Model the fold of this input.
Amino acid sequence: ETGVTQSPTHLIKTRGQQVTLRCSSQSGHNTVSWYQQALGQGPQFIFQYYREEENGRGNFPPRFSGLQFPNYSSELNVNALELDDSALYLCASSLGFFPLSGGETQYFGPGTRLLVL
Amino acid sequence: KNEVEQSPQNLTAQEGEFITINCSYSVGISALHWLQQHPGGGIVSLFMLSSGKKKHGRLIATINIQEKHSSLHITASHPRDSAVYICAVSVGAGGGADGLTFGKGTHLIIQP
Done:
């Protein structure tokens, strides 16, 4: 039990729709990262938020966007869904001592499995 | 861009066997993470290390910074160790954030 929760657990959408996935980090964790994991693959880094601002981004288009709130919750929004967006979406939080070095234990949520038809 | 390679991709062993999973990466890192993922998706952090060796119960992780290589060992393996083991590295050095770069994982099955 990592103390990180995600909702919903499963979601089915159709191509072109928009989706919002939610994550609740451990209290006191200033950093949250979002990852996409396609079936049979390792997770891919989408972006990271530190103290409510985007702090880094992987190779994902702008239709992937996020928000982080002061209450340690965050959102991943995906617009204009495509079939290839079908994946497990994971969030991970960490304490986030600045300067951020990546050398912190990451606490992962259970993930949201998104299916785009 | 850091490339993370794991071997083997799949491993089936008998209960009690000593297990080794290897990870190599292509560029300098700030830390290497070993993670465990069970069916259903949940990921648990096992180790984070930037040098030397760490031990937790039956699990041991080592890293050789010069050779850009890490190993995860499981002693006295048990069927409950069956999972996907993922190696991930972080590169960020102050200010920026590159997230973790993951290997594809090693699917481990321990048979009774």
Observations:
- Chain B has a mean pLDDT of 90.
- The first strand of chain B starts at residue 4 and ends at 7.
- The interface with chain A takes residues 4, 30-31, 33, 35, 40-45, 48, 50, 86, 88, 90-105 of chain B (CB under 8 Å).
